[in-house]
Write a structure and sequence with these properties.
single chain, 98 residues, 28% strand
Amino acid sequence: MPATQSEYRFDWQSKRGMEAPLAFRKAPKIAPSNLILYTGDQFPAWKGNVFVGALAGKAVWRFELAGEDNTPRVVRREALFAELGARIVRVARADSML
């Protein structure tokens, strides 16, 4: 029997050797296909952002990170290309382009 959302327990601190994730989504589920960290120079404002392709979320999700390199946190989420209504199977980069 599948667990209901209220039965999920996010208690990473009690697990030895595990760290809490940078972010997790309760709803809507996006079914991530892949993830890239943007390090290019073409879009300076996006440098260091994480881009996630979404099968169920039907968008490319951009996660803006802040904080120190060893303790980043998600400060903003944005759905890109959602108007296409298509499953995003792969996000790729070449040189400084996405």
